[in-house]
Amino acid sequence: MSRAQRAVGRVPVQWRVGGAGMAAVGVTFGFARYGYGLFLPEFRRAFDLPVALVGLIASASYLGYVAALLLVGVLVTRLGPRPLVVIGGLFAAGGMGLVACARGPATLTAGLVLAGTSPGWVWAPYSDAVDRMLAPQLRERAMGAIATGTAFAVTVAGPLALATQGPQWRKAWLAFAAAALLATLGNALVLPGGGRAHPAGNSGAGREAHPATDEHPPRTLHRAPRPGISWLARPAALPLYATAFSYGLVGAVYWAFAVEAVSDHAGAYADVAAPLFWTLMGLAGTAGVLTGHTIGRYGLRRVHRWIFAGLAGAAGLLAVAGLPGAALPGALLSALVYGPCFMAGSGLLAVWSYRVFPDRPTPGFTATVLFLGLGTITGPALLGLLAEHQGLPAVFAATAIASALTQLLPPPKTRSHPRTQHPQAQAQLSNHAP
């Protein structure tokens, strides 16, 4: 055992897992995936990018993310969390390094797409890592901490963008890449490798390990049959899939174009407005760790309505940002509303998915995430074309309408206390961090 491993081993396991997870989620989601939107005005100036191409690049990065996510779903039980999270960290570092060194749109696009795949490599393995390394009573708290990695990284990225304006933006992306390498090293020291077998009758993470006793006899291990299309397409799942698609579309458009809209209408405050907007969004987003408590207290239906009303309001505020006197106040209010609503949306989908697929939560949630991914791919590409012809206010007006209409697809009325939720749903609740 190396000196570094011995030093890490002296830290309580929940702190090791929580810290490493926050770092991994922060660099892959907060920097590699969402940094594109923050620096979009600089990219457009440096590479003369038309707004339609901006949307296509964003969609391409989300396509890579979905492909990685599906691949990891197959590999995580065979390889264990460590190699997959390390791959994600290296993709983030390599992609952001390419962006920092880009001299033309082709290299920029390649770097952004490579970096954009990295969250897909990190997400599912951390559900597995928390399940394998922590006792059941520690898992929910650890996943809540890990989820805040995105919000804290977004908060850090804002001031960094303010300090590296103009041609200096490349230094920010080099700093992002260096942070990704450090986070990857830390995760390589902390996470377990190697696959594990699934007990019969159990479908995913959240299993408690018991010795073979009279109370807990040994269980037969076998590969469960894969669920078919008819199982996944049950009628109760259709509103869930439609909501996931809308959530992905709205989120991808907002992350890709919000800073551009703020910069367009901030006038003399443009250089300060965008980083301030981003920082406020990240700080407000840390409230997303309360999602599980809020769902347990008020139920899925109310939280669903609040989230999509908030997303509609946040997009609507950017749609009217061009009105006299509305630019900066409206943009900052939009950031404060959007941050917690977006961070809470993944928790809503995780709990709702488990209620639809309690018998096989992992494949059910994977199908849900696939529809979310289709929304993230469709949104920037389609609405980027709309922006080319009608402008960004029309894009955010359309996004606000889509969010408002999603309130017509409510979850079931049933409520469950957080303690009765399946451990896999608890892990997924805070681990999307899209």
Task: Walk me through the topology.
Blueprint: H1 3-9, H2 13-33, H3 35-38, H4 40-47, H5 51-79, H6 81-101, H7 105-133, H8 136-163, H9 169-190, H10 229-232, H11 238-265, H12 270-285, H13 291-298, H14 300-319, H15 327-356, H16 361-390, H17 392-406, H18 423-429
Notes on the structure:
It contains 18 helices and no strands. The protein has 434 residues and is mainly alpha-helical. The chain folds into two domains: 195 residues, MFS general substrate transporter like domains (Growth Hormone, Chain: A), CATH 1.20.1250; 206 residues, Growth Hormone, Chain: A (Up-down Bundle), CATH 1.20.1250.20. α2 runs antiparallel to α9, α5 packs antiparallel against α6 and α12 packs parallel to α15. The longest helix is centred in the last third of the chain and has 30 residues. It is globular, with a radius of gyration of 21 Å. The two termini are 35 Å apart.
**Can you tell me the number of structural domains?**
2
Q: What general outline do the C-alpha atoms trace? A: globular
What is the string of helix and strand elements? HHHHHHHHHHHHHHHHHH
% residues in beta strands: under 5%
Average of pLDDT: 80
How many E strands?
0
* CATH topology type of the largest domain: Growth Hormone, Chain: A
Radius of gyration: 21 Å
